Amino acid sequence: MTLDLTPDELLSTTRAVRKRLDLDRPVPRRLIEECVDLATQAPTGRNRQRWHFIVVTERARRREVGDLFRRALAAAEGHPLTGDDVRRMNHAPRSTQGVFDGLRHLTENIHRVPAFVIPAIEGRTDRASAALQSGTWGSILPAAWSFMLAARARGLGTTWTTAQGPLEPELAAILGVPYREVMLAAFIPLAYSIGTDFKPAPRIPRDQVLHWDHW
């Protein structure tokens, strides 16, 4: 069964779920397959359909991948925050603090998450031009987001992470992925959500992001 959500509700309440993942309830393979079927209806550049989804559910493999998740987070480096970054992050009181609290909870319990979904795409963009990168990423990100929307509609929770980034070659080796030919785009924990009553997130006002005819 799917949740009774309007399209607008589905789009505005598909949240990053970290604390409210049901760590004790297995996710049926059938539901994951349904989500992948919907994901592959997403747009794909030149109809090349180079996408792949690696799903990890086996207990020992999940523990191994979960350990890598923790090590990768510790090794992650991000761009320095700008003043605008900080202003937007703190637009809603306690919003960003909630993100980091949820990330800590997820990290501590990552080995208990019943399924990991790693969307991937054939063709690497290392040192590629912006044009080539946009075409490649534009052929996997819509599919991954469609997967997350389909999961939400089925009472499942997800969160988009790029934790695999710093240790991508090691994760590829664990999963048997040909690293030189296939790029691991994200690392998505998947579980039933505890409750389904998610709400739209507080965001900065529209007039700060919408531009008509010029910047």
TrEMBL record:
Kindly state which keywords UniProt assigns to this record, in alphabetical order: Oxidoreductase
All copies of the Nitroreductase domain together span: 15-186
Question: In terms of domain of life, where is this protein from?
Answer: Bacteria
- Statement: the UniProt record of this protein carries the keyword Oxidoreductase: yes
Q: Which GO terms describe its molecular function?
A: oxidoreductase activity
Q: Which PANTHER family match?
A: NAD(P)H NITROREDUCTASE YDGI-RELATED, NADH DEHYDROGENASE_NAD(P)H NITROREDUCTASE XCC3605-RELATED
| Similarity section | Belongs to the nitroreductase family.
Return the protein name: Nitroreductase
Q: Which organism is it from?
A: Actinomadura litoris
